[in-house]
Structure to design on (314 residues):
């Protein structure tokens, strides 16, 4: 690899925000949350677009907040943008959206969005309404920061209750799907992995899915296997990657860990301003982002090769 950027690989794409050469560009691959990626120009650009969510009066001199949640949102936005998904004419489907700003952000670029989350009774029972910041129960509250002009938001975004453990069969033909910090909450490791496989049905040929979840940095052996939040080990992700590839989907995963002081800091209460890793039970956790591509109808051997430019492969 002559290119100095970790977590990216060369593949054939319709060039998006990160530029490139002709139809070939360096694009993000599935990877762990790292400070290096967070402060890359591409993600900084998205951070600026999301500034109203973390710096409402625009007075904060920081270029971004060093938080893995922010990394997840910026990673998803960049992965979709550089694959030319955030444009008019595309259709996107978000799962477990809570009150995340991505719905409004994506709609502001032109795609039609179907935003989904648990039904209110189950969200209440599971405690998702407690914090006031993690569950929207409808379209209101998904454009709080005015990331999308209201009339465009109203025209492009619809909302629906969907249980990620039972993805309805009529949800199909989307160009992209995404979820942030959601599939680790489906009861156990297998349920989350099944969701990732199942939701690929919602994509049209050539579509792309981007999902973030919890990654166990401290053990590839013991982990939290069931409960309100589960923790995926490297071996769980490798098994999922294998399963997805067997079904014909393209996914490449770079398990390189960040090695800056921000990456190494394990943030525990009282939380600091550097929160890329924290603990869950006895384990250290960070985020992982998965990018999974469904082959386009006419993709031949060259297309498959370009779509799988391998790096440190999981
Ligand atoms: C930690 S919050 C994340 C919210 C949002 N994605 C974000 O990044 O801020 C987890 C979300 O997953 C949703 N969720 C949990 N279990 C779910 C299920 N079985 N089906 C659909 N959504 C679910 C919750 O309602 C909540 O909105």
């Amino acid at each position: 690899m002559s290119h100095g950027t970790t977590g990216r690989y060369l593949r054939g794409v319709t060039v998006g925000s990160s530029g490139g050469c002709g139809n070939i560009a360096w694009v993000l691959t599935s990877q762990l949350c790292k400070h290096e990626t967070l402060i890359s120009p591409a993600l900084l650009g998205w951070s600026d677009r999301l500034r109203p969510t973390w710096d409402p009066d625009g007075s904060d001199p920081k270029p971004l907040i060093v938080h893995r949640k922010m990394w997840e949102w910026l990673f998803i936005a960049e992965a979709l943008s550089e694959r030319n998904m955030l444009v008019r004419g595309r259709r996107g489907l978000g799962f477990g959206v809570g009150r995340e700003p991505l719905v409004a952000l994506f709609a502001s670029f032109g795609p039609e969005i179907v935003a989904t989350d648990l039904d209110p009774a189950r969200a209440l029972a599971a405690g998702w309404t407690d914090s006031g910041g993690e569950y929207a129960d409808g379209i209101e509250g998904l454009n709080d920061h005015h990331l999308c002009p209201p009339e465009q938001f109203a025209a492009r975004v619809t909302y629906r209750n969907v249980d990620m453990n039972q993805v309805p069969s009529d949800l199909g033909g989307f160009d992209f799907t995404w979820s942030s910090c959601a599939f680790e909450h489906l009861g156990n490791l297998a349920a989350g992995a099944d969701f990732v496989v199942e939701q690929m049905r919602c994509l049209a040929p050539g579509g792309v899915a981007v999902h973030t979840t919890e990654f166990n940095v401290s053990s590839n052996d013991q982990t939290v296997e069931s409960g309100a939040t589960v923790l995926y080990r490297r071996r769980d992700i490798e098994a999922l990657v294998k399963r997805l590839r067997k079904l014909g989907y393209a996914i490449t995963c770079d398990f390189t860990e960040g090695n800056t002081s921000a990456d190494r800091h394990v943030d525990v209460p009282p939380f600091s301003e550097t929160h890329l890793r924290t603990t869950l039970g006895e384990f250290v956790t960070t985020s992982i982002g998965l990018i999974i591509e469904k082959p386009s109808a006419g993709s031949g051997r060259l297309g498959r090769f370009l779509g799988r430019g391998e790096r440190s492969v999981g």
The longest strand covers residues 203-216. The CA atoms of residues 14 and 78 lie 14 Å apart.
